[in-house]
Amino acid sequence: MKKPLQLAALLCGCLVTSVAFAQAGDKGPGFRFGNGWNLGASVSVGAFWENNAHDSTEDKESGAGWRVQPSLSLSKQLGSRSSFNTNLFYTMERGFDDEDAEDSDSYGISLGYSRKLSQRWGLSVSASYSHSENDEFYGVGWDAANPTLPRIDVDKTDNYQASAGLSYSGNKWNLSFGATWSRTDRDESWGTQSDSYGLSIGAGYKLSRTLSANLSGSMSISDPEDGDTSTSYSLMGGFTKTLSDRLSLTAMAGLSFQDYNGYEDDTTVDPSYTLSLSYKASRRIALALSMHSTYESEYYNDGYYNARTTYVWSHNLTGSMTVQWSDKLYSTLSVSGFYEEHVATVSGLGDRDRKYVQLAFNTSYRFNSYVSMYGSVSWKNDQYDYDSGDDSADDIRLDVGMTFTL
């Protein structure tokens, strides 16, 4: 009983504080001090429920829970060309069903710096660190051989990331260059650490008032501590066409080259394409439709410690509608369909095709500059059993909460 009462007390305290700030008639959220410093704070409090709490294809159990997400931001304008910002966050989530529970805690910090080098060139640098811990408590009865034995599984992960970008914006040309590094470090029970490195380049050229050509390329290296290093290259090209004042079309197609050391096929070539339409039906209603398909390799172990290859066609069709009912109320409805077709190279893998549909409705209401409310409902049938090929299980989830900004 104590935890719900503590949550209610926190919610009441945030509401009283936010109302007090709103009635004070100040200049909006944030505390401004010194020479250009701005300090902001917010907390989001919410609850959720879903009918398939363990994402299972059988023995579905419903579950509910709550979360608290405080955050703190600090920014400073460094003259007329540069700015600095940092953000800190903490998320505490508690979920449960009749017998089991799942606790999740995460926290982190991000730093960012941007500078306008000239009228057309810009530089940005960022770094971040986050830690997450997921504790799963299994009640008695999870093990048929030991029906009175409970169990606790703990999974801890640290993530590090750094990136730098250079951009150019001209009358006809737009260019971007980027470099990234990331590291994922799991706890000792997993004993895995993986580093990733990436380079990217993008270019856009305005052919006419309504037509632009786009080109992008990237290279990434994945270097896991307990596995083989893999390298991938990607090259995409296409165009963006403004068909009318309200309708625009973007089409991209390209190839990716995957080099997996130690596997049956060391190098694969995977084609992909993306089509997207956006339509502004009115001042308050916007529609979007996109189709993405890719052909890629998938590796598995044949049971004799030999790596084998199968190929997969993945198709994803997504449509969305965003409605601005008023200056304070927004809603979005999205529908996604996914189909995964396995093209087997060995016997027994040709029947593992997969398909699912997902629907989501999100809405938010802003009472004032300090208080807002959000809610969402979603349905999906993407629970998949790789042993049996069963993809008939579904999941319904409800979320509701409030955000207070100081």
From TrEMBL:
Signal peptide: 1-22
Autotransporter domain ranges (all copies): 99-187
One Pfam entry name: Autotransporter
Compartments where found: Cell outer membrane
Record's keyword terms, sorted: Cell outer membrane, Membrane, Signal
One cellular-component annotation, GO: cell outer membrane
Keyword Signal: yes
UniProt protein name: Transporter
Organism: Candidatus Spyradenecus faecavium
